[in-house]
Design goal:
about 290 residues, alpha/beta, Rossmann fold, 8-stranded mixed sheet, 8 strands, about 15% strand, globular
Length: about 290
């Protein structure tokens, strides 16, 4: 449980953070905490959910409620937590391997359902925890200990997939740009519905190609007159790979999953009274 009465999301002094020096996870952790604080959220009303991996350690370094699930299973846990208590702000945060690899099936169906959660993905184009094998977003030809001759399949494009599935909010950020990343995260957290934010952040130890400099050189920000409600334009932008667009690619208001299921918005599940008559009737129906 988080400490009560704190005005920010910092953990107590002396908390050991198990990341390599200069890892892109550090600035993203700081930006997330700053964003949550500036939005005026209370740690007790926030739940951070993750799977397995270096990025998935992030919730352990934030003064808030957290749930650490199985590899690739952050999203179903996050959806369940939101269904149980709609008063909570729920954020699923893990890496590109956890979310797009092991969790790829959950990603597609979470987009379809459109629950009111925010999904932050640390995209460093490599598996960092298991020391450098290719992730779903690794570039074609990237050499690593497992693929010494280079990656032979095209990388997974989460932006294109999300737009194709009509995700309600699709954005991409570069952790090398702190202020812009914070602005994007604020809009995602305030969005009503599923919000995907793919964040480029380097793994300085196991990926010597996709560095801070590489991400700066291979990205650009969408112009001010770009229309994020134009789905066809958004898909075309999402398919750009030589220089990849940053900002809010697509947003589309859709019915929220919790509303469609008739989940009460004012009363968390644990405070709702049990209707024993309905329960008894249900049990008898299986006899």
């Amino acid at each position: 449980m988080p400490e009560t009465g704190k005005k920010n999301f910092d953990m107590p002094h002396g908390t050991d953070i198990a990341w390599c020096p200069a890892c892109g996870n550090f600035p993203l952790l700081n930006v997330v905490k700053q964003t949550l604080s500036e939005l005026g959220l209370d740690p007790k009303d926030l739940v951070l959910v993750s799977g397995i991996g270096q990025a998935a350690k992030t919730p352990q370094y934030v003064n808030a409620n957290m749930f650490n699930g199985l590899h690739g299973r952050a999203l179903p846990a996050a959806v369940g937590i939101k269904l149980a208590n709609r008063n909570l702000t729920v954020v699923a945060e893990s890496g590109d391997g956890d979310m797009y690899g092991e969790g790829g099936n959950h990603l597609t169906h979470t987009i379809r359902r459109n629950p009111d959660i925010t999904n932050i993905v640390h995209n460093n184009m490599i598996y960092g925890l298991t020391k450098g094998q290719a992730s779903p977003t690794s570039s074609l030809g990237l050499r690593n200990p497992i693929q010494p001759n280079g990656v032979v399949v095209d990388p997974f494009n989460p932006m294109a997939v999300a737009v194709a599935l009509d995700a309600s909010f699709v954005a991409r950020a570069n952790i090398g740009d702190i202020l812009q990343t914070k602005a994007i995260l604020k809009q995602a957290l305030e969005w009503k519905g599923y919000a995907l934010v793919d964040v480029f952040q380097p793994c300085v130890v196991f990926n010597k190609v996709n560095t801070y400099e590489w991400f700066k050189e291979h990205t650009y920000y969408l112009p001010d007159d770009y229309d994020p409600t134009d789905r066809q334009a958004a898909f075309a932008k999402a398919c750009e790979t030589e220089k990849m667009p940053l900002g809010i690619l697509y947003k589309h208001e859709r019915p929220i999953y919790e509303d469609e299921l008739g989940i009460k918005a004012d009363t968390p599940l644990y405070r709702q009274e049990l209707d024993t008559e309905k329960l008894e009737a249900l049990m008898k129906s299986f006899v």
